[in-house]
């Protein structure tokens, strides 16, 4: 197995995904911390695999002393984030209280005006900014400071809650301190998030304070949920990575007929009018229906016959689809 070639290819595809997420809807997510974050996460995971720091340093092409200093520096700066255009526009409006679209575009003239427009639309739709008028003369103003702060906190918490739920589900018995580190969440936001999940019966807590541990029996994000898309994407990605990781750890670099760990990817080449086009496009709907039916049966049985955590066999099934038509990337 050409491990280096595989790693290079996976890194490339991951950067493509990060680039698409960071520019979604015209919003520029902060990326300056990515290199340091990748280094820190890699070093932690490599050492967790039982590799010594000296060997880990050599894997990065660093002397042990340089490696240790870099780990310390990156750890200390892990919470720092560069300002995005979204944040820049918001801060500028806070300073001026209100401003015309023309003056905003002039102030951010180094940025693509289309992107600035997307940011403004996003801020207005989120309720953080109001708009009066249309066109270049439209006036944008900041929502009252108290309401603005509350809106920002609520949006952050609404997005944090489903992600935390998935993290707890996939890491049964995770400590509060470890959860806070993984989510990089403020203590107050995490506390409200965990309290909400616990009150709704979505997670169970054992212990108190920073040593408290959490578990979740299931995670279910409704199809039409306004918040939770991030959690669904994260969970899908995490399950895929876990399946590949299990196969690698088992030392099996090829598939066999009775595999229960791993995945399969099939491609269908079709054209409009193809006799099997509709059948192929309906495949996911069919599989989803079968999986949901089986999942409901399992959940119904488990409700009447609770499973002890120490005896649980966890089966994950993931599937997805994409349709790329001519002239689409």
Q: What does this entry look like structurally?
A:
With 329 residues, this protein is mainly α. The protein folds into four domains: 3-76; 85-146, Winged helix-like DNA-binding domain superfamily/Winged helix DNA-binding domain (Arc Repressor Mutant, subunit A); 152-258, Arc Repressor Mutant, subunit A; 265-329, no CATH class. The chain is built from 13 helices and six strands. Strands 1-3-2 form a three-stranded antiparallel sheet. Strand 5 and strand 6 form a beta hairpin. Helix 5 crosses helix 7 (113-125) and helix 8 (145-170) packs parallel to helix 11. 13% of the residues are buried. The mean pLDDT is 78.
Structural class of the helix and strand makeup?
mainly alpha
Helical segment tally? 13
Largest sheet: spatial strand order = 1-3-2
User: What composes the largest sheet?
Assistant: 3 strands, antiparallel
Question: Briefly, what CATH class of the largest domain?
Answer: Mainly Alpha
CATH architecture assignment of the largest domain: Orthogonal Bundle
Low-confidence stretches: none
Provide the number of structural domains: 4
Radius of gyration, CA atoms, in whole angstroms: 24 Å
Helix content: 55-70%
**H/E element order:** HHHHHEHHEEHEHHEEHHH
**Might you state the CATH topology name of the largest domain?**
Arc Repressor Mutant, subunit A
Overall geometry: globular
N→C terminal distance = 30 Å
CATH homologous superfamily assignment of the largest domain = Winged helix-like DNA-binding domain superfamily/Winged helix DNA-binding domain
